[in-house]
Amino acid sequence: MGDPVTIALDAMGGDHGPSVVIPAAAIALVRHPPMRFILVGDEAKIVAELAAYPQLAERSEVVHTDVAIAMDAKPSQALRRGRWKSSMWLAIQAVRDGKADAVVSAGNTGALMAMSKFCLKTVKGIDRPAIAAIWPTVAAECIVLDVGANVGADSRQIVEFALMGAAMARALFGMERPSVGLLNIGVEEVKGVEQIKEAAQVLREAPLPIRYHGFVEGDDIGHDVVDVVVTDGFTGNIALKTAEGTAKQIGEYLRAAMGRSLLARLGAILAQGAFRALKEKMDPRQLNGGIFLGLNGIAVKSHGGTDATGFASAVDLAYEMASSGVVKRLGSDVAQFHTKLELEGAA
Amino acid sequence: MGDPVTIALDAMGGDHGPSVVIPAAAIALVRHPPMRFILVGDEAKIVAELAAYPQLAERSEVVHTDVAIAMDAKPSQALRRGRWKSSMWLAIQAVRDGKADAVVSAGNTGALMAMSKFCLKTVKGIDRPAIAAIWPTVAAECIVLDVGANVGADSRQIVEFALMGAAMARALFGMERPSVGLLNIGVEEVKGVEQIKEAAQVLREAPLPIRYHGFVEGDDIGHDVVDVVVTDGFTGNIALKTAEGTAKQIGEYLRAAMGRSLLARLGAILAQGAFRALKEKMDPRQLNGGIFLGLNGIAVKSHGGTDATGFASAVDLAYEMASSGVVKRLGSDVAQFHTKLELEGAA
Questions:
Q1: Pair B237, B147: CB distance under 8 Å
Q2: How far apart are CA B12 and CA B106, in angstroms?
Q3: Sequence-separated (6 or more) residues with CB below 8 Å from residue A159
Q4: Which DSSP helix (H) or strand (E) runs through B134?
Q5: What angle do CA A284, B280, B217 make, to 5 degrees?
Q6: What's the predicted TM-score (pTM) here?
Q7: Residue, of A125 and B341, whose pLDDT is higher
Q8: Mean pLDDT of residues grouped by 10 in chain A (347 residues)?
Q9: Under an 8 A CB cutoff, do A264 and B273 touch?
Q10: CA distance A69 to chain B (A)
């Protein structure tokens, strides 16, 4: 991409609106100076926040609208009332119209998915978009999807998730043939629900640009067993939140243990650099952002309650996704897969 | 229970057989001196191990058999070949015949469930047994089920899991009305799959000896939101293993952080008491054991690869379950529930 990457931000999304989104954009801009922004929302509020960040102001275009999607709006309601005019919609539309390379919103997940599907449309050959998360592992990171776009998935959708996750790993991590595993309750071929067993058979046999690993279990996700972990949106969401909850819980144990005795407190002071590094590694804000895959454009969902540090991570992610050319990669991988399936008469 | 609690042990189960099971029984006996054991398996091997533990030998009866169930046997195969004669079967049968109050095995989970169902039979009014786990929380513990007995569950089974988990909490934690939550991908009533929404409606309206909390998410499990978390066996197994994997992963981060600099290493030495306490708290062996609920008897599954410390935890759990009268509690709760449903004409 020769031109600077432009990111459209829904400035009114999330629990804090422009007071988090604008400082976050300023943080991300320092890390990626060629970036430009389209800031969508209440102009007066956005301009007031921008006053503190002249460099950001210089590289931003403000698009005004009075309409914002409520955090608790139902997706269908949000689509009906917020289409064509809400800050969320207009930020997505900037991607559709080629004015922006990606959109980031901390708004309502269901509304963002409904509007993104309606506005950007699903990639040809993909049944349903998925939300991918980047999951920290012992040695690096892996991609997990779907973490909540759908409440279930049939075997065809699971295969598509595998393709989409692999395309993302190829684009984002620069891998030629990422390894892909299906999340299951055992690694033996006979284990699990029917749709997963069927998807496994397709992945084993189809000539795809992936290394199909087989089944993986919950404790494999963070241990670098595969580059891409594929599951349905119900299970993936629960796995992701369970891991986040466990990390928080252990942080609380650790704090309690280190405060218990004088020696422990002294030790904690000496090791404070190490604890700081650990805290940073475990900070959920470092990997904030669900990536919508399978759409004709990049949309990133930030946690609604995050601060500027967290939202800036979501902007970083959008920047990396936009620079990686993942949408093209995904489209051509999917097209190739369907061509092959049709040739085999299996589609 | 006036008489001492007797536990039947499948001495041949698990990766290590009697060399782990016998020392584990000795550890558990120190903690619960009135306990007695029935040790089932290769008599020569068992007696050889018992030589080191005269107190245990005095309180144990050895039942000999040559047949052991392979760790990788298919449940149907295990049932066909191992029925009436394997160490796993004979240990379960001791419970059925009233000679033991509970059985513990580190053998193949599927085989143990198939044999336990066949031998002990399912409690009247329960469609399918479940496996419950005790999950450490920030402040205490909660019960999570099903963690893998079934690959799915319909709404009726989910309601039964709720009843069974609550009966276990009432018996084991001494609670009058435990709070129960259904694991879901959001806390709003409209979220989730159909069978969970249907189960929620039954739990909201039925006059049960529980406080129905509503939906909980993955990050609520460890944070003392409810006493009992109910889910299907697929999701529950993945949540449990994801949490175990995350705890292990953070342990690795912590070790790496503490070894990074001289100051950190010195701090770690000073705080070693605190680290030891933390390690113990995070040690998966402390809460080793899946409890089979819904059968006419108590069966506890230990991890196959655990050591004597881990297997001893499973024996402790069987002891507590046997002492708590959970099987009677569960039977009467279920019978009462079905009577009420029938009176309402809903069954």
A1: yes
A2: 8
A3: A199, A202, A203, A206
A4: strand B130-136
A5: 35
A6: 0.91
A7: A125
A8: 84 96 98 96 97 97 96 90 94 97 95 96 93 93 93 92 94 92 86 89 88 95 97 95 91 84 83 79 77 96 93 95 89 83 58
A9: yes
A10: 18
Q: Are B148 and B237 in contact (CB under 8 A)?
A: yes
Superfamily of domain B1-124+294-325: Isopropylmalate Dehydrogenase (3.40.718.10)
Q: What are residue B222's phi and psi, to 5 degrees?
A: -85, 5
Say if A187 is an interface residue toward chain B (CB within 8 Å): no
- Residue B39 predicted with pLDDT over 50: yes
Q: In terms of C-beta density within 10 A (0-12 exposed, 13-18 middle, 19 or more buried), how is residue B302 classed?
A: buried
Q: Domain locations in chain A?
A: 1-126+294-325, 129-286
Q: Tokens representing B214?
A: 């509503």
Centre a 10 Å sphere on the Cβ of residue B185 and count the other Cβ atoms it contains.
25
* Alpha-carbon span B129 to B157, nearest angstrom: 9
CB contact under 8 A, B274 and A266: no
Give mean pLDDT, residues B48-56. 97
- As given in the structure block, the two tokens for residue B129 are 């047994």
pLDDT reading at B3 higher than 50: yes
Q: Which fold has domain B127-287?
A: Isopropylmalate Dehydrogenase (3.40.718)
Residue ranges of A 281-340 with Cβ closer than 8 A to chain B: 281-282
User: From CA A220, how far away is CA A207, in angstroms rounded?
Assistant: 25
Distances in Å between the alpha carbon of B309 and those of A14, A110, B303, B306, B346? 48, 47, 11, 8, 47
A221 contacts on B by Cβ (under 8 Å): 242, 245
| Token pair listed for A36 | 């430009």
On the question of pLDDT at B164 being above 90, the answer is yes
**Do B1-124+294-325 and B127-287 fold alike per CATH?**
yes
Look at A267 and B267 and tell me if their CB atoms are within 8 Å: yes
**What digits encode the pLDDT tens for the residues B238-273?**
999 999 999 889 888 888 888 888 888 888 888 888
pLDDT of B9 reads 98
Kindly state whether B183 is in contact with chain A, defined as any CB-CB distance less than 8 angstroms. yes
* Placement of tokens 């009332």 in the chain: A81
Please count the residues of chain A. 347
The per-residue pLDDT for range A119-176, each reduced to its tens digit, is: 999 999 898 999 999 999 999 999 999 998 988 899 999 999 999 999 999 988 989 8
Name chain A contacts of B74, Cβ cutoff 8 Å. 190
Residue given tokens 């949408």 in the structure block: A327
Single-letter residue type at A236: G
For domain A1-126+294-325, say whether CATH 1.10.8.110 is its number: no
C-alpha closest to that of A161 among A147, A171, A172: A147
Token pair 């006059």 is found at B207
Which class in CATH covers the domain with range A129-286? Answer: alpha beta
Q: Does B217 touch chain A (CB under 8 A)?
A: yes
- Residue B68 has, within 13 A of its CA and on its CB side, a CA count of 24
* ipTM of model over 0.95: no
Given phi > 0 = left and psi -120 to 50 = alpha, else beta, which region is B106? alpha
